[in-house]
Amino acid sequence: MDNKRKFLDWAVKHHQVILKSLKGVDLKVGEIVNFENEYGIKFYGFKVLGFDKDGVCSNPSDVRCVYLDWDSFWFPAKPSALFK
């Protein structure tokens, strides 16, 4: 999946501040991660597109602040739901 262009266009259109890194989150833009939802179902192989500025103000592991290259690229994931 490659939604990077759509993601960047969405971020500009909606005036979203996208960070390249986030203190307290051990992930990097471009890194491939896996996701586990609240029901324990695992999904594999998503690229990190960026980080939401809202994760800066609080404990980032509890805030949806990691944007992934998936169908709902505009909906960030919690770092605590991601694994390598």
Structure description:
There is one protein chain. The protein is of the alpha+beta class. The protein has one domain. It contains one helix and five strands; from the N terminus they run H-E-E-E-E-E. The protein has one helix at about 5-15; strands at about 20, 30-35, 40-50, 65-70, 80-84. Strands 1, 2, 3, 4 and 5 form a five-stranded antiparallel sheet that branches. Strand 2 and strand 3 (about 40-50) form a beta hairpin. It is globular, with a radius of gyration of 12 Å. The model has no long low-confidence stretch (mean pLDDT about 90).
Order of helices and strands: HEEEEE
Strand content: 25-35%
Using the alpha-carbon principal axes, give the shape. globular
Helix segment tally? 1
Per-chain topology:
Blueprint: H1 4-13, E1 18-19, E2 32-36, E3 42-52, E4 66-68, E5 82-83
Antiparallel strand pairs: 1-3, 2-3, 2-5, 3-4
Short description:
The protein has 84 residues and is of the alpha+beta class. The protein is built from one helix and five strands; from the N terminus they run αβββββ. Strands 1, 2, 3, 4 and 5 form a five-stranded antiparallel β-sheet that branches.
Structural descriptors:
1 helix; globular; 5-stranded antiparallel sheet; alpha+beta; 84 residues
